[in-house]
Specification:
This protein is an alpha+beta fold. Among the domains are: 107 residues, RRM (RNA recognition motif) domain (Alpha-Beta Plaits, 2-Layer Sandwich), CATH 3.30.70; 57 residues, no CATH class. It contains seven helices and 20 strands. The protein has a six-stranded antiparallel beta barrel with strand order 6-7-8-11-10-9. Strands 15-16-14-17 form a four-stranded antiparallel sheet. The protein has a three-stranded antiparallel sheet with strand order 5-13-12. The longest helix is centred in the middle third of the chain and has 62 residues. Keywords: Coiled coil, Disulfide bond, Hydrolase, Protease, Serine protease. One of its GO terms (biological process) is proteolysis. Pfam families: Ldl_recept_a, Trypsin.
Length: 485
């Protein structure tokens, strides 16, 4: 049952509408309340108190008679079964052409063409009252490229026989709204039905008339003929088509007694289906079990990745700790030691120790630093040796190891005295921390951050902004700098 608000509807039609629009038979639209109840489901509970095989009068009385409406006999005490029996009539009675041939003008005055401005005729519909159309719900399902549900795209053509040919008999209306059956399923096509409210009532004429909608209790015999109408060929000058179809094809198959062979075949089919269902259920259980196993393995993998990451960070921290007392002096060219001169001096009886000290790497580095005003206690230097160059373009570098961090930091603080030279003092960072430091210096050059430095092999940055905004942060991972790019 669909509730359709109709506030503001000004209907002047005298045409009967049947149970499609109201619970009472053939209720005139002007007499309807502000809500229309459209019975599209025809549930087993009947229609408002009567069984499906009973006809319900306007007074609420149930009449147990097959198709009592409009048969010339007043079966209802109030005569409502014989009121307004003019729907479904064809004012211009002519011989009809059936079997898929062209229909004559006025033969099907309730046939409506639903068209879209850019695409022309898209679907058919039937006029069931002066303001309402009945159509298929699938016509208004959106595709990837076309929004069929937009009522502004649709226009209804009534009284039309030839597509794209608008004569004086043709009435056009915009669509105000589309009401789909609440149980419509676009995948199974169940309840494929929709109501369309026109923007304004249509005036009934010889070419425009509503079709009758049978009461829920109406029955059709297996020998009844039905007509299917519409524009079967979507092309220019396409004419409305009509075809005679027996109810055996549309209302269900003719019932014939089942043979023993039929029953055996049905039993075999049911057994096959039962086995297939059991197989599918078993496979589904296996799949669900595998899915659960995969989920558990992924969880274990995630936990192991966390452990591995933690261990890798621990190893990196330990490696960095072994370099905590080191300084890298880069950009200073070191002369090779003159061993030949030292040996000849020894052979002549001279002391060659001074020569070796003056020519050592440590002596060359400390002599240069002292020449720049840097104070350094040579007794605190535990080791000093050049680093191998990976390629010719690398700057020369020397590693110096101090007895403790205090002496190392004292030397680093004096590094500003080297400003204007090509020599730099830096902490001995691991590759991971070195990458972080290089990226931080790049961000400073780009003015994305205010400054950067290292202390005890930790990388610090200072953000831009006011004193309140210029926070100092420790950067432990390279991706931590992504927020400041």
């Amino acid at each position: 049952m669909v509730l359709i608000p109709t506030s503001g509807v000004n209907t002047t039609s005298e045409v009967a509408t049947g149970d499609l629009l109201t619970g009472r038979q053939r209720q005139d639209l002007r007499e309807m309340p502000l809500s229309l109840f459209v019975d599209l489901s025809l549930s087993s509970s009947g229609h408002k108190g009567c069984s499906l095989s009973s006809y319900k009068c306007a007074s609420g009385k149930c009449v147990n008679k097959v198709n009592p409406e409009c048969d010339g006999v007043k079966d209802c005490g109030d005569g409502s079964d014989e009121e307004r029996c003019g729907c479904g009539t064809k004012p211009k009675k002519k011989s009809k052409i059936v079997g898929g041939s062209d229909a004559q003008m006025g033969a099907w005055p309730w046939q409506v063409s639903l068209q879209m401005e850019r695409y022309g005729h898209m679907c058919g519909a039937s006029l069931v009252s002066s303001r309402w159309l009945l159509s298929a719900a699938h016509c208004f399902q959106d595709s990837d490229t076309i929004k069929y549900s937009d009522v502004r795209s649709w226009k209804a053509y009534l009284g039309m026989r030839v597509l794209n040919t608008v004569s004086n008999a043709v009435a056009t209306r915009l669509i105000r709204r589309v009401v789909l059956h609440p149980q419509y399923d676009q995948f199974t096509s169940d309840y494929d039905i929709a109501l369309l409210e026109l923007s304004a009532p249509v005036f009934l004429s010889d070419w425009v008339q509503p079709v009758c909608v049978p009461a829920p209790s109406h029955t059709f015999s297996s020998s009844s003929n039905c007509f299917v109408t519409g524009w079967g060929v979507l092309m220019e000058d396409a004419r409305i088509q009509e075809g005679n179809v027996g109810t055996n094809n549309t209302m269900g198959p003719k019932k014939t007694p089942a043979t023993t062979e039929d029953l055996e075949e049905l039993k075999f089919t049911l057994n096959m289906l039962t086995e297939e269902v059991a197989t599918v259920n078993k496979q589904q259980k296996t799949i669900m079990s595998l899915v659960a196993e995969v989920k558990a393995l992924r969880q274990q993998n995630t936990e192991k990745e966390k452990v591995i990451s933690s261990l890798e960070n621990r190893v990196a921290d330990l490696e960095q700790y072994t370099r905590i007392n080191d300084i890298i002096v880069s950009g200073l060219e070191i002369k090779p030691r003159s061993y030949a001169k030292a040996v000849s001096s020894t052979m002549s009886g001279e002391d060659a120790s001074d020569e070796r000290d003056l020519n050592s790497v440590e002596n060359q580095v400390t002599t240069f630093l002292e020449s720049k005003g840097i104070v350094i206690d040579r007794k605190n230097i535990e080791a000093c040796h050049p680093l191998n160059r990976k390629n010719k373009n690398d700057k020369p570098a020397v590693i110096m190891r101090f007895a403790n961090r205090k002496h190392k930091m004292e030397l680093l603080k004096q590094g500003r005295r080297l400003k204007g030279t090509q020599v730099y003092l830096n902490e001995h960072l691991t590759k991971k921390n070195g990458d972080i430091a290089r990226k931080a210096r790049f961000l400073k050059k780009q003015q994305k951050i205010q400054s950067t430095w290292t202390t005890n092999c930790k990388i610090f940055i200072k953000l831009n902004g006011t004193p309140e905004q210029a926070k100092v942060l420790v950067i432990r991972e390279l991706q931590d700098l992504d927020n400041y790019e």
